[in-house]
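User: Hey, quick favor. My workstation is busy. Could you predict this chain's structure for me?
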Amino acid sequence: MPGLAAEQDAVSMVRRIARALNRRVTDIVALLFNHKSAGSLGAVAGFAIAVVFAWRFLRPSQGRPRRPAPKRPSATPAGTPDSVVSDAAEPVGDSGKLVTRQIVAKRLSGCRKVTCQLLGVVFEEKTPEELQKHATVRPSVVELLLEISRHCDLYLMETVLDDKSEENALMALESAGLFRTGGLMKEKVLFCSTEVGRTSFVRQLEADFHIDTSLDIVSQLSRFIRCQLFISSMEGGQLAANIFNSPNLEQFFS
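Assistant: No problem, here it is.
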């Protein structure tokens, strides 16, 4: 029957068009014009073109690949000081060194120049007479002094009785490795013959922080020096507000 044949022919045409959807539109148009047995070429062609445009509109886009979203930089935890982050990134063999570094930076915050007496602070010896015979650096202050010299301009000074005392002092400091980093040099170790001379050294250097075992010296300097540390196992009595008191150097920086 002509009507049934035309319907079957149209169905066959749609199936062929579906198989040809992945081809170019020009190929589909050529297929339509080559098919001569359809009852209504115009109707079938219109239907086919509508299917093609619907397919092109609804199919998933295969255009350019989407760019990956930029990664957000990892944020620093709130409340973490920058200095702590820089130190954590730096390899430190001993965690104690990191703690010492942070405490020194905190205690000497804003201080650019530090002056420190030798006897009773750096040396085991406490009198000029003992220094004439020998000098012994206290092992517990070596790393601390090196850290202070990295943080500030450090000067060491002492009142001595003769040249032999100076030699003993310099030899002990060098043997302890205090000159090995370059922060502390022999030229920054000063000697004088009286306590008045030591007081004069501190003022001439315009130190921000002075460390001494003499109550007289720290009292005289309290008007001129920003901060001082009085090293004594006994209470210093009524000290000025800018004078700290500690039995030894390492305890103050602990």
